[in-house]
Design goal:
4 copies of one chain form a homotetramer. Chain A is globular and about 55 Å long. Chain A starts with a helix and ends in a 5-residue tail after the last helix. The first copy, chain A, has helices at 2-12, 63-75, 77-83, 97-101, 113-121, 128-143, 152-161, 163-175, 182-193, 199-210, 225-238, 244-250, 287-300; strands at 20-21, 37-42, 47-51, 57-58, 196-197, 255-257, 262-267, 271-276, 279-280. Chain A is built from 13 helices and 9 strands. In chain A, the strands form 3 sheets. A 5-stranded antiparallel sheet of chain A has the order 3-2-8-7-6. In chain A, helix 5 (113-121) crosses helix 8 (163-175), helix 5 crosses helix 9 and helix 6 runs parallel beside helix 9. By secondary structure, chain A is α+β, with helices and mostly antiparallel strands. The first copy, chain A, folds into 2 domains: 2-60 and 197-300, Beta-lactamase; 61-193, DD-peptidase/beta-lactamase superfamily (Beta-lactamase, 3-Layer(aba) Sandwich). At the A-D interface, helix 4, helix 11 and helix 12 of A face helix 4, helix 11 and helix 12 of D.
């Protein structure tokens, strides 16, 4: 496995030159475009690495999966999905028009920004500090990594430039889609996006989902089998921004990407995978990361279809 | 004239029962649904009244005309219309979708909320206090009424419930359509909407526009003839929310309505008209006010078409 | 007047180089880009010309005004406006999205293609031949020109390439917005757009509207004063495609343009104007024609605002 | 298995009363609302039945899967997906707005009507007769049923009332998204939707897909493994109209429904399933059919997630 990963990372390196590091948040543009790494965590707890697997990056949209798991854990499936849907949408991740044009009772799904802001608004805690501590603590548990914290520069950068997310949140507030103080909810949201992780951390999250909600390293159940299945399903239909359909067809693994360059993937009953490569394609997905996952899926026949 | 106005107000009274007082801002719902009044100011400065012409109400969207006049005065036509368009739109006044779907360089016109927020952002002043003082002072001048102030309850009510306007403003901020601090701009905007006026005040504004920018009572020019014409034209195409086309066809007078129940109308080279009736139709226009203007237009042949 | 027109045409010539002849219908692309002409018809029946005023061109969207006049004459205002609205829209002339997104009971207005197809569907006649004869006969009457006929090459060209209009018509058929056979209605519509006219013809139509529905050359009333006013109002709010607002602000005359290069304008109680210049701006309006109207409006103070 | 199917059909019967038979095509409204049946075909070719499994119905949108398989077989994956995308969309199946609003290079996916019309346009044949014969012949092969033909009443009914599909097709013609004669393409499309099948037929199609493109009853390969995977993936993300996400979460099997009341499902490497129940929910999916699949999926642990 180790050699396979090493050779796949090598093969995928050349593609990083075709993409661009995210620039909409100034802090993200400082990433090293050529970095590329992978970690695989199998269900017996073994871990395999290659490339820049120890490089830290911010979790960004991959945190939408974490907050969804936690929100269901704390509120129940029924309550969460009364506030946010589970249907894919052809809109881009930060689109606002569907909230008005289609006038839905709730945002389409928890992987677009509007839906993720709703999910975050459901996390328990008496203050925004308590809420983000709650998310951090859950993230540390499912990554078995007590060191995970927030990158303050990225958080401040998101907060300063997050006006599109403010527009989404105030629109939903005006429609009654979210309760609570908008700026507080956004503060938690910006912080959860700025959690700093590496390939291993997200590979472990993928492994927990692959293992139907049980931590492979301890046997402890953290979420139900049903929640685990729901989350993987939504990752397939909505996890890769507006390239989700293409990713499902070509690679066929539940996955969630973030503009920090990470992709967290979960092969049901087999393994969790974390890849990192901050050079992004036009849809906002790691260009090298997708190449790695495609080759790995073909080599190990990982498609669920 | 006085008898004509009196009989028209009487004739229009019955229609007030078919509408509803605005309720989206809690404070507005306290208005007396049956109130109805009119004031006409001719270009020689004569003033005629009937009905509840002295009842005070908040100016609401009629302030969009005032801030447009002032913004052009301070910044020039070219600068203002580089930031906001002059095309009518079939969207409702608080719509956000066109900002994304049609991705325009600027909001469609200064009479929809998005455009009016841009106009307000262009008013000069070193602080939000100075800006609203600037607007108040200009309003007092074109109404010849030094008493005009802000209804604090309505302002607070708008501020508390103005999340749709926040969504519009943050969306435009994220697209670079507005400069400056969003909450400060909105604060000025909420205050300008909460200016308290009566029929006479808006009739005088209409008379200034009808008189090509010269105050009828003093002969002083406050805005250019061209600005005056621009403003009246935009009132025709966009002044009555998404009933502007129908109003133009049936009544044919440049006019601007507000959900406080006022309609300010300007008959070029003839007169300014202010009507008040807080009972609104489904488009947000004063139901009795429209009836009054329709009968008056027919009686005095006021249509410009 | 004659000298004024001549000098204005001269001044406007240079602008024709900045535009392009319409090419979406292949036949239209054969027009001479530099042609430019004008005709003015006053209410006492006097006619003044300059430039290429005798050059023939197809009426295109200006026919929407003719079919609207005729449809109201035959069906009454109430029936017509139960099928098509009178509100301006920020959409482009051939847009289909609003029919679905806003799901209106009827197309927004008779100047966008969807609305004009509805208007044409209301013209009386037992067959498409009778209907187009009906339109031709009415057009000949209001232009006092018995020679007006259909340019068969343009008609065939429109029919062959009119798939966007077919999409609009079948969409409205599926929603119940239009009755009757879609291909027959479209056949009449394509033919009415292919009527061949010159500047004088459209200047006369403008003069009939300016004269409140009475033919200036014979004193015969063809449409009511009210219909005449309705038509002029809709020309102001919707006549110049999505540049209607700007045209109203800068020129202030009810007008309707066509991609054949014509603009028909009507100054209430003063004159009708026809201009021709097939070089179009990006909105589909005659670029030289707009310059001519702007200069003429300023020289003679024609704005209604 | 037989007893399991029987009891599941019994349990699901009560739900048929909550839905409605399709009525937008008059012929469909004649179906028996209470009918409910199932057929399961395993990869060793065994077939199990329960309920009204022999009742015939029209295939409707399930034919979109058949024409997609055939179009890829004849044109190659690359050519097909250069003309139609593979992304899910939150729009309803017959939506036209995205073709204009998002102005994509191609319709979003082959399961919405716009995309399916494109797929059909790619089927080879010198005439519409040859094309539909081609589709029929392929359908007979993958169902091992030489009797499959077209229900002429339903076909005529679709043709007469198919104006929304005409609108979609002419819109795409005007944008260059489809080649060829629109009415001919629609004729083939209406006929493919009117193919008459029963539960067994669609269960066999599901089994071919589950078997990676090899006919279970003969071992003959009809489509490649890759095509088979692509088709199943698109069924997951887009197969159940705008309830695809919810179906994936709750049931987790690639499936495609039709308004005739059928659902064709394919459990990778395990079985094909056909269910029939013409009582539909508000999204257009068989209400009893979904209940059957949900219970079966739970009983046999069929979810791929």
């Amino acid at each position: 496995m180790k050699n396979l990963l090493k050779s796949i990372v090598e093969n995928s390196k050349e593609y990083t030159k075709e993409g661009k590091v995210a620039s909409y948040i100034p802090e993200l543009s400082k990433a090293n475009r050529d970095a590329l790494g992978i970690c695989v965590v199998t269900l017996d707890g073994k871990e395999y690495f290659a490339g820049d697997f120890e490089e830290k990056f911010t979790v960004q949209s991959i945190s939408k999966v974490v907050s969804l798991m936690l929100a269901i854990l704390e509120n129940g499936k029924k309550n969460v999905f009364s506030k946010v849907g589970m249907e894919p949408t052809g809109d881009s991740f930060n689109s606002i028009m569907s909230l008005e044009v289609k006038n839905p009772q709730k945002p389409f799904n928890p992987m677009i920004n509007a839906g993720a802001i709703v999910t975050t608004s459901l996390i328990t805690g008496d203050s925004s500090e308590e809420k983000i501590e709650n998310i951090l603590s859950f993230t540390r548990k499912i990554t078995d990594n007590k060191e995970i914290g927030i990158n303050e520069e990225v958080y401040m950068s998101e907060k300063l430039t997050g006006n599109r997310n403010r527009a989404l949140a105030y629109f939903m507030k005006s429609n009654g889609h979210i309760d609570g103080d908008v700026e507080e909810i956004l503060d938690v949201y910006f912080k959860q996006c700025a959690m700093e992780i590496n390939c291993r951390d997200i590979a472990r999250i993928g492994a927990v989902l692959a293992n139907d909600g049980v931590l492979p390293w301890s046997g402890e159940r953290v979420i139900s089998r049903e929640t685990s299945r729901i989350v993987k399903t939504i990752m397939v239909t909505c996890g890769m921004y507006d390239a989700s359909g293409e990713f499902a067809v070509h690679i066929g693994i539940p996955a969630k990407s973030g503009v920090g360059g990470g992709i967290m993937a979960s092969v049901p009953r087999r393994m969790g995978i974390g890849v990192y490569g901050p050079s992004l394609d036009s849809k906002g997905n790691s260009i090298g990361g997708i190449k790695i996952l495609q080759e790995l899926s073909e080599e190990l026949d990982l498609s669920i279809f």
